[in-house]
Structures are given as C-alpha cells and as structure tokens.
Amino acid sequence: MTRPPTATQRLVLVIAVLASFIAFLDGTVINVALPAITRELGGGIATQQWVVDAYLITLGGIILLAGSLSDAFGRKRVLFWGLLGFAAASVLCAVAPSAPFLIGARALQGVAGALLVPSSLALIFSTFSGARQARAIGAWTAWTSTAFIAGPLIGGLLVDLSSWRLVFAINIVPIAATLVLLARLPNDRTADAATRVDVVGAVLGVFGLALPVFALIEQANFGWGSPVILVPLVVGFLSFAAFLWHENRTKAPMMPLSLFRVRNFWVGNVATTFIYAALSLGTFLLAVFLQQVGGYSATFAGLALLPVSILSIALSTVIGRLAGRFGPRLFMCVGPIIAGIGFFVMLRIDSSVTYSSQVLPGVIIFGLGLTITVAPLTSAILGAIEPDRAGIASAVNNALSRVAGLVAIAAASIIVGPVLDLDGFHRAAIVTGILLVGGGIISGLGIQNPRVVPADKLQG
C-alpha cells in the first residue's frame, strides 16, 4: 500500500494545481468572450486571433527561460514573481480601452504565465516520488485539464451576466489564495552566483515564434506575396534556426537539446505537438462557431464542453494511477484516437446546430479520449528526465504545447476562410481529428513503457 501524502506534499499539490490552473484557464476562458470583445473594441477574426495568440506567443517564448530560472533560482521564488506579474497584467486587460492595448496586456500576461507552469510541475516532481508521484500527476492533470474546458463556461457566465472585462479581473481571487499558500512553503535554496540566464536564447525564441505567427494571422489581409508577410516570415524562420544553433553551443542553454536524446521525452513531445494543436484549434473554433453560427449564448457555448471537465475530474486520477502501474504507452495511443473520433462525430452537425443530438455525442467521446491521454502523457515525458531538470523538462513540454496551439489558431483562418461558417467548421473538425489520431499513432509507435518495478519499491 502506498502511504498517504504528507502535509507538505498536499500543500505542494494544491499550490501546483492553483498556479497552473490560473495560467491554463486564462488561455481558454477568453474564447467565448471574443465576440463580445470585438463588438466593444472593434475588429474581426484577426483581432480575435491576436487576443488569443498574443498570450500564447509570449508564454511559449518565455516558458523555456522560465524553466531554467525555476531550476536555477528556486520554484517558490519564480512562482511568487509570476503570480504578482499575472495579477498586474490581468488588471491591465480588464481596463483595456482599445484592442491594441488589450493585445499588449495579453502579451504581458503570457510572460507572467510562463513563470507559473514549469515551477508548478517541478515542485511536484521534486516533492513526490514513485507511486505517489503518479497519483499526484493524475490529480494535477484532473484539475488543470479542466481549465482548458471549464474556461469557456466561466467566461460565458461572466460575459452574459456582466462584462467580458470580468474574465480578467476574476484572476485576482485565485492568485491571492495561491500567494497565501505559497508563503507557507519552506524558502528556496540560495541561488548560485554563477547561474547564467540565456537572454540571447530567449530573444531569438520569441522572434522565432512571434514573426511567423504574425505572418499566418495577417496573410488574409495582405496576401502571402506582400513584403509585410514575407519579411516577418523569413526573419522568423531565420531567428528560430539561430535559436537552435545558439542552444546547441551556449554553456547554459534555456532549452538543452540533450533532453531530446531521451526517447520518451522526444516522442512524447512530438505527440504533444499534434495533440495540443488539435485541442487548441478544436475548442477555439467550437466556442466561436456555437455563438456566431449556432446562435448560442456565451454561457451555453461554455456549457457545451462541460462534459469534458466532468470526465476529467472523475477519471484523471484513476487514469494516472493505471498509467503508473501498466505504463503510459497504451493510454497515449488509444486516448488521442478516441478524442479524434469525437471530432469526426461532430461532422454530423448541420445548420440547426442541435446540441443534444449533434454536438454532445462528439463532446463526450472527445472528453473521454482527452482524459485517457493527458496524465499518462505528462508522466511519460517528465518521468523520463532526472528530477533536477524537471523544471526545464516541464517548460519544454509546455512550450511545445503552447506553440502548437498558437500556430494552430493562427492557421485557423486558412482552414475556415475569412468567415467561420458550417463548411469551415467541418473542415476544422476534420483537421482536428486528423491531428489527434496522428498523436495517438506516434505515441503507439514510439513510447516505451518503463521497466516494471516491484510494488514494495514504489513507496515514497
């Protein structure tokens, strides 16, 4: 029998869940608020894409640096500054007088959000071990995964009952609670005076992400042949190539390429790229489609995905425990394929957009598949790396998932066209399903289950 967690371990798990939930929630709560934002501040689908992707660009670009800072300076310290920064940026979003101001504030939110997730997961991996670690990751997954789906529900209620601005202002409550709990943790060790921060890598990484994403979003307005699109695209790709070259040569890289020599790490991250591109694209367009085409209120559009949250809360801890016992390979293969089938089922949606018969069946299948996937995916990737590099390993995985999401959303206008209609949603559902099935196939072919350890050695 596995001993129950200690008081410190329970505190660490609560802090890790809250801090990650804040960052993940803000990436999804915005989806159902987008129509209301553009009605008040102006702009079309490009503005909606930028409000989402400004956050994801900086989060994806800085999260690698944040992982290095977490390992070097301590999880508690990095979490503290991330929470304060997120609170300040949330206030700026809530009072935004214009769309450009809001987009800029969202970018600042992404910087602060990047400090939260790697430190949270690194706290778990440095505090738990063995079977308790698998259960902790399952619990973390259950609650943080709901942020991707519960976000639209919370956002919809706030938009319909009050204002889209509360979508950001509400962040202050969980941030304050997390800061109070964080103060109860023991202080971090003193930072090493020789620790170096990879500033060059961070700058190259941000440019390598932001410029191609700018080109993807704005190509609908300027065309691929325009210098406004071509120059950022070329400079962005060159910046990303320079980033990889720099990371391979610098003594203190923010993304150690040596991590990718570990099989489960690199295979898991390739699968992550497919799965999270699908998750971001599918949920983003479904939330907007239900409102703009189906005529749903913001609240009901959020409620549409509530079954996914229920399944995640109910089953993720169990799935995490089973994956810890039998290995992650089967779950990582079957889960994404089931989730992909869920989006293929949504091809039955017609112009009536009837929820019970057309939307709900696909949502339930998708939710079951997603729940089967996430906890084993996290455990397989981070469990393959030694604990003292858990911060940067978590950061790399989260960076890839956010980058996959922002690129998928940036490409949304290419998939659906300038206006989201029924045919455009069907095309997006097909792409989402293909990406999910691809992630499952990659996992099934590439992931290796760890060597079985006797039960009496799993205590810890």
TrEMBL record:
Boundaries of every Major facilitator superfamily (MFS) profile domain copy: 12-451
Key words of the record: Cell membrane, Membrane, Transmembrane, Transmembrane helix, Transport
GO MF annotation list: transmembrane transporter activity
GO cellular component terms given for this protein: plasma membrane
InterPro entries documented for this protein: EmrB-like, MFS, MFS_dom, MFS_trans_sf
Membrane-topology annotation of the record: Multi-pass membrane protein
Subcellular location: Cell membrane
Residue spans crossing the bilayer: 12-37, 49-66, 78-97, 103-125, 137-158, 164-185, 197-217, 223-245, 266-290, 296-318, 330-347, 359-382, 403-420, 426-447
Primary location recorded for the protein, binned into one broad class: membrane
Pfam family, one: MFS_1
PANTHER family on file: EXPORT PROTEIN, MAJOR FACILITATOR SUPERFAMILY MULTIDRUG TRANSPORTER MFSC
The protein's name: DHA2 family efflux MFS transporter permease subunit
Species for this entry: Cryobacterium gelidum
